[in-house]
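Renewal narrative, Specific Aim 1. Our central claim is that a sequence can be written position by position from structural information alone. The example that follows is taken directly from our test logs and has not been curated for this report. It begins with the C-alpha cells describing the chain, in the order in which they were read.
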C-alpha cells in the first residue's frame, strides 16, 4: 500500500516565479554548450572531442564551460536529465491528491511540443550503435531514478518506513523501465526518424506506458471489461 497523499482535494502547487534576466542568460549559455556538444557528437562520435572544442563551438571560454559542467560526458548526460527535469517540473505542479501515475501521465501530456523529445530520441538512437555512449545513457537514466524518487516522496506525508521506501524505489524503477520500453518500441517502428510525426509517436508511447503501469499492466483486451466492473481502490497508483 502506498503512503497517504497529502490533503485530499489539495490544489496544485503555485507556478514558479518568472526567471530573472541573469537566470535566462545562464540558461542560454547552458543550452549553447549542450547544442555544441551534440553537434560534435554527431560529427565525431563520443570520446572524440574535448572540452576545448565544445567551448570553442559554443563561443565561451574553457573556464566558463566548467562553471556549468564537469566533463564532456556530463554535458551529454544533461540531455536526458533536461527532459526529465521538464517532466518533473510539470509533475510538481499537479494536485497532490491526484494518483501518482495519473500525475506522471498528465506531466508527459503537458509537454505538448513533440520536439522537446528530439534530443533525447537522437541520443538514444546514437547510443544503440556505440557501446560507450550507451553506457553513459544507462548511467544517466539510473541517476534519474533518484530524482523521480525525490519528486514522488514530496507528495506524501508522515515518516517513511521500510515499506514506503520500497514502494517509492519500485515505482521510480518501474517508471524508468516503462520509459525505456517505449523508446525501444519507437525505434523498432520509426527507426530513429526525428520528424515531428515520429516524435509525436514517441511522446504517445511514453504516455501509454504510464497508463499501462497505472492499470497494473492489465491486458489491453481485458482492460475495457475490467474498467466497467471494477470498483476503484484507494490504494491504486
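The sequence written for that structure reads:
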Amino acid at each position: 500500500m502506498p503512503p497517504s497523499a497529502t490533503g485530499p482535494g489539495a490544489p496544485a502547487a503555485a507556478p514558479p516565479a518568472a526567471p530573472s534576466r541573469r537566470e535566462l542568460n545562464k540558461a542560454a549559455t547552458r543550452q549553447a554548450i549542450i547544442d555544441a556538444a551534440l553537434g560534435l557528437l554527431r560529427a565525431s562520435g563520443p570520446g572524440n572531442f574535448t572540452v576545448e572544442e565544445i567551448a570553442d563551438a559554443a563561443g565561451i571560454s574553457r573556464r566558463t564551460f566548467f562553471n556549468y559542467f564537469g566533463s564532456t560526458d556530463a554535458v551529454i548526460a544533461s540531455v536526458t536529465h533536461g527532459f526529465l527535469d521538464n517532466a518533473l517540473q510539470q509533475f510538481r505542479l499537479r494536485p497532490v491528491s491526484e494518483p501518482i501515475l495519473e500525475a506522471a501521465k498528465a506531466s508527459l501530456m503537458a509537454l505538448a511540443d513533440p520536439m522537446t523529445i528530439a534530443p533525447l530520441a537522437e541520443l538514444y538512437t546514437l547510443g544503440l550503435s556505440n557501446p560507450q555512449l550507451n553506457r553513459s545513457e544507462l548511467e544517466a537514466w539510473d541517476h534519474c531514478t533518484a530524482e523521480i524518487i525525490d519528486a514522488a516522496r514530496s507528495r506524501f506525508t508522515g515518516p517513511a518506513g521500510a515499506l514506503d521506501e520500497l514502494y517509492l524505489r519500485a515505482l521510480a524503477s518501474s517508471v524508468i523501465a516503462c520509459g525505456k520500453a517505449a523508446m525501444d518500441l519507437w525505434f523498432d517502428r520509426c527507426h530513429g526518424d526525428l520528424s515531428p510525426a515520429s516524435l509525436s509517436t514517441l511522446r504517445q508511447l511514453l504516455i501509454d506506458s504510464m497508463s499501462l503501469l497505472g492499470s497494473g499492466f492489465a491486458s489491453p483486451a481485458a482492460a475495457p471489461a475490467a474498467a466497467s466492473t471494477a470498483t476503484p481502490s484507494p490504494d491504486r497508483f
